[in-house]
C-alpha cells in the first residue's frame, strides 16, 4: 500500500440494453461500458483521509432512495490483494485507477434519475442520468 497515493469514488455504469444487444450478436460488450458519462469519478482523496481502506462504507442513493450500502470489509478480495494480483499482469503507472467492485443492490436507472453516492463522510457526488445523444 506504500505506492497508493489515494482513492476516488467511481461509478462504473453499464448500459444494459446495449450489453444485451451485443451479447445477442456475440459482440464484445465494450460499447455498454464506454459511453459518455459512463464512469463518473469523484475528487481525489488522499490516503491519509482513509486510514483503513478495508473498512469504509460506500453507498448510493437513486432519487433519495438507498440502493446500495456496504462496507469494503465485505469485498471478496482485499484492496492489497487486488493491487498485487493486477500488478502481476498489468504494469500499474502513477495515476492509474483500479475499480474494486460494488455493494449489492445494482439496479437499473432511468433518464432524469438523480444519483447521489458517497464514501462514509469523506466524499460524495451527485449527478443526473442524461439521455445518450
TrEMBL record:
Occurrences of domain Fumarylacetoacetase-like C-terminal (ranges): 1-129
Instruction: Tell me the domain of life.
Output: Eukaryota
Q: Please report the name of this protein according to its UniProt entry.
A: Oxaloacetate tautomerase FAHD1, mitochondrial
Note the InterPro entries from the entry: Fumarylacetoacetase-like_C, Fumarylacetoacetase_C_sf
Q: Which Pfam families match?
A: FAA_hydrolase
Q: Which UniProt keywords apply?
A: Metal-binding
Family, similarity comment: Belongs to the FAH family.
Q: Which reaction does it catalyse?
A: acetylpyruvate + H2O = acetate + pyruvate + H(+); a 3-acylpyruvate + H2O = a carboxylate + pyruvate + H(+); oxaloacetate = enol-oxaloacetate; 3-fumarylpyruvate + H2O = fumarate + pyruvate + H(+)
Keyword Phosphoprotein found: no
Q: What is its EC number?
A: 3.7.1.5, 4.1.1.112, 5.3.2.2
- Gene3D superfamilies hit by this protein: Fumarylacetoacetase-like, C-terminal domain
Organism (species): Umbra pygmaea
- Per its record, what are the GO molecular function terms? acylpyruvate hydrolase activity; metal ion binding; oxaloacetate decarboxylase activity; oxaloacetate tautomerase activity
